[in-house]
Structures are given as structure tokens and as C-alpha cells.
Amino acid sequence: MSDMQKTIEIEVLRYHPEKDKEPHRQVFEVPFTDDMSVLQGVQYIKDYLDGSLSFRWSCRMAICGSCGMMINGIPNLSCQTFLRDYYPARVRVEALAHFPIERDLVINMEGFIEKLESIQPYIIPKEERTLAQGEYLQTPEQLNAYEQFSSCINCLLCYAACPQFGLNSSFIGPAATALLHRYNVDSRDGGKAERMELINSEEGVFNCTAVGYCSEVCPKHVDPANAVNQNKTNSAADYFLRFLAPKGGAK
Amino acid sequence: MSKRRPYVRSMDGWWRKNPFFVEYMIHEGTALFVAAYAGVLLAGLFRLSQGEAAWNAWLAALTNPWYIAFHLAALLALSYHTYTWFKIMPRTMPPVVVGGERLPGWVITAGGLAVAAAACLGLLALVWGMAR
Ligand code: SF4
Ligand code: FES
User: Which of A2-6, A129-133, A158-162 is predicted most confidently?
Assistant: First the structure.
């Protein structure tokens, strides 16, 4: 019935801070079937070949955003990338580029969490409302304005695709800007002036040189490059408007 | 004591690591031709301001084979620059909503390329008409 078991070579970039000075490659021979994802391949290594291998995952269905890796040099969710697409060649997996490696395939994402906090990713109401005033109403067009930018799953593939973030890690970057934009263009929100200060700052959108690869790799079609570049225009408008309206605009 | 020692990988040669980045660098590189060609046109304008003899000398200099080769190279580089410029354009502008539907990116790209082609042909026709 079953023909010969197929095996594929998976090359993993290993790094154990306790004993390694720097990362090194290790190749594993992994038996696989056509329905196995790269994540399942890595799980096989952990379960049967080397229990010390570290990586993040949870949902296995491209929704939690925790399994991002460089797969043959391309940022991707390992749960939606299949081993059969690489067979018979070797697959190379590595921690997401441009982030510090904490251990093996696990990156340090503290910098991103700080950025996420800094954009105030919640609705800042325009004015105080009482319960008696009822719920907010929104038209389909008002929903359309931000819906795409709210699909982000914080997988950070876009950061691994952004050389400007790699060269300057203080750049607020694609996903955080997309989320910032998501709240700024929400009809219920009144926090735009505060958030624009971040957009206009040294860490802001002008670090972007429109490489555009972030939008290319985003698994949720958020198009973060669009959010970043729309805010270059917003930032320029903010800058010039303050000459017209000294009380408004950026500080 | 913490055992954590996050390892930061080098960015050396980053643009060679992914075909997308190589393409990006070529696109950025062709911008040098845009600048160089603007320089050529400005030089022509300057020579024109110096009178007929200077202008004719400039025109004669342009017939040098090296200059013609440069023009061919610039034409190629600028065409590629135009193509990649409009390719990225949908990502850089606010959504265009027509009849309640968002215009797809390829329509914006195709529209931009069509306008660029029409402008080039229009200019060519104008110059052609004046030269005759
Ligand atoms: S914008 Fe896309 S690629 Fe970036 S973190 Fe969000 S879902 Fe991931
Ligand atoms: S495991 Fe959740 S996105 Fe891949």
C-alpha cells in the first residue's frame, strides 16, 4: 500500500544562548507526507529527533500569527507553507529576519510590543458618551475605511521583510503603522492628533523608502505599505496645515 | 543571572539576500539615470541661453556615439524606472473608490502606464511636428 516513506532535509538555524557564541546550522532528515506543513516538519524534529529545538506556534491555521519563520530566506507562516513544495530539495528555516534571536527560531519581540503600546491601539472616543446615548453607528463605507487594516495578526512577517527596520530597529514599522492607521481612520475615534506625533517623529513613516515587500509577504492582505505611505501624505499635510491653523496640526 | 543573550544578525549585504531587494536596488539605481538626464537637459538649456553658436555646438556634441549610447541606456533605464514606479503606485496612495467599489491595484498601475505612454507619444509628435 504505502510506497517508500519520503524524507526531506530540514536545515535549521540553531542558537542556544547558554552555550553558543553565534547561531549555526543543523540539518535533520525528516520523514514527511504531502499534507505536512513546514511547522509539522519542525514539530517532528522536536518530538522525535531533538527535544531542545525551540519555536513558537499555536493555531496551525494562519490565524494566531506566532509561527512566522524565514523559509528559504522568505518570511512566511510555517503552518501555511508545505514541505511538498520544496521536496526533493532541502528546506532552510531560520528565525524571522531583522529581530534578535532569543533561542533557535524564537525571536525577541519586545521592541514590537512597545511600539504596539505606543500607538494606542484602541478607540479614543471623540467625546464622552453616556450609555443612554446608545451604541455607535457606522455606515458600510466607514467600516471599509479601516477594515483591511484591522486584519493584522501581529505575525511580524512584514518587519522581517523590511530592510529599513533591519537597518534601524527604532522605526515604528509596517504593522504598527497599519494598526495606528486603522484607529485614525475609524469614524468613532478622536485620537488622531496624538497618534500623528508618532507618525511625524524620527521613528515615523519617513524611514520608509517604499520597498513594498512588507505588503507582498503579509498573509492577511493588510497592505501595511499602503498605511505607511498614506501617512507620509498625512504627515506632510499636518506639517503645512499648522502654518494655516496655528492652533491645530502637529506640534 | 539571566541566561538571555539575544543574538542580532548582521545586515551586511542585505540587498543581495532576496530577489525582491535586488529588484528594488535596480529600481533605485535607475533613478541615477533620471538625474543624469535632467543634467543633460539643463546643460542644453544653459547653452541655449549663451546664444546660437553655443547651442549648435551642444547639438553637435550630442551626435557623438558615446552620447547616443548614453541616450539608449538612459531610455532603457527610464522605461524600467517608469514601469516599477507605477507598479508600486497603488501601494502609495489613498484608496480610489469608484461607485462604492475600491479600484484594484492593477487598474491604477495600468492607468499610470497608459498616461505615461500617451505623454511620451504626445511629446514625440509635438517635437516631430516642430522639426519638420
Ligand atoms: S501587517 Fe500583515 S505581515 Fe505585518 S504583522 Fe500584520 S498580518 Fe503580519
Ligand atoms: S500556528 Fe498560528 S499562524 Fe501559524
Answer: A158-162
Domain assignment present for B4? no
Tell me how far apart the alpha carbons of residues B5 and A235 are, in angstroms, rounded to a whole number: 38
A69, β-bridge pairs:
A76
- Which domain covers residue B57, as residue numbers? 14-88
Is B74 among the domain residues?
A: yes
Nearest to A81 by CA among A57, A101, A98, A97: A57
Give which of B78, B6, B92 is closest to A214, Cα–Cα. Answer: B92
The number of folded domains in chain B is 2
Contact (CB<8Å) A17/B94: no
pLDDT at A4: 78
Regions of chain B with pLDDT less than 70: none
**pTM for this predicted structure:** 0.90
Q: Is B60 a domain residue?
A: yes
- Decide if pLDDT at A247 tops 80: no
| Mean local confidence (pLDDT), A92-121 | 97
Which amino acids bring their CB within 6 angstroms of ligand 1? A 152-158, 174-175, 178, 218-220, 222, 224
B91 vs A: CB within 8 A: yes
Evaluate whether B89 touches B113 at the Cβ level (below 8 Å). Answer: no
Q: pLDDT for A11-38, tens place per residue?
A: 999 999 999 999 999 999 999 999 999 9
Residue of B nearest to A145 (CA): B95
Q: Domains of chain A (ranges plus CATH)?
A: 2-107 (3.10.20.30), 110-244 (1.10.1060.10)
Whether residue B47 is found in the same domain as residue B84: yes
SS3 category, B98: strand
Alpha-carbon distance of A33 to B47, in angstroms, equals 72
Interface of A with B (CB under 8 A): 15, 17-18, 22-23, 73-74, 97-98, 100-102, 108, 141, 144, 163, 166-167, 209-213, 215-216, 223, 225-226, 229-230, 232-233
